[in-house]
Amino acid sequence: MLQSNTSDVTPGEPIVLRQKSGGSVSQSLSSVLGSARADSRLSGYARAQTLSGLPQAAADWFAQAAARFHWPVRLRARMAAKRGSLIVLEGVDRVGKSTQCKRLYEALRQRGRAVKLICFPNRNTEIGRLISLYLEKKYNLNDHAVHLLFAANRWEQVSQIRNNLEKGVSVIVDRYAFSGVAFTSAKSGFTLEWCKQADIGIPKPDVVLFLDLEPLAAMKRAGFGIERYENLAFQEMVHQRFKELMKDESLNWKVLDASQSIDALHQEIISKVEKTIEKAMDEPIGELWK
Ligand SMILES: Nc1ncnc2c1ncn2[C@@H]1O[C@H](COP(=O)(O)OP(=O)(O)OP(=O)(O)O)[C@@H](O)[C@H]1O
Ligand SMILES: [Mg+2]
User: Fold this and answer.
1) Which domains does the chain have, with CATH numbers?
2) Ligand 1 closest atom vs CA 262
């Protein structure tokens, strides 16, 4: 059970959290306000960043108390969430993206970081269901049309991604626009430039972790070969397209050797992601390919 002095605190005065039984937890609100930039609801702020060193129960309690407490406008203007990072994992099929996304998600949570994990395509929306039927080869679509559907499937989650980042929640993304472009441009008659158009302006990743593995090695891993696009020749073409996309130095690409063990790769990923989160929190959210 936690108690505080929030009911009678004056602006700038430290808020103190105490556990009724056992150890104590305290956090100086004035130091919090001093390090912040501008207002964003303190609930997300507390849960996401400022109190990340506190036990979850304490951070949640503080967030609820802060949401009920009406901060004067003068002080609100000095508060801001340090934003979360947009972390994208990319690569050809079966390189270990989903495995590493889950490991990363768990590791960040254990370290007290606020984090969400999403996956594209999101097969749970109307557009996503259509994409799913297409990938399962139960439905045929024009190549241009399906490309735009994949992009639309990302756009329909943009506000959710942005909201999370602004609240200080980092978002891990299992495939993003780079897969969309690499896969369509691997088909004949498509240029990279045309393929990029539909995703211009979606939130720009703070880091793109490219899990690099020869398609021949990837296809030997479990589960390869069930859906559309899962054949070696096509995957090799996709791999080439990814390499072309990686020439874009306006993006923070990190190429990682995906042939190493799951644990070794995870260690490399977590260290790169920690650095990214620390750096990105004071930067504005970018727009992709703009
Ligand atoms: N570093 C690794 N070494 C060996 N096997 C791995 C490694 N990483 C993942 N795997 C295995 O490879 C298979 C594919 O992994 P996973 O589903 O994570 O890949 P993916 O890139 O998400 O695939 P897809 O592109 O189909 O979504 C799984 O059986 C997984 O256990
Ligand atoms: Mg996967």
Assistant:
1) 2-76 (no CATH), 86-280 (3.40.50.300)
2) 1
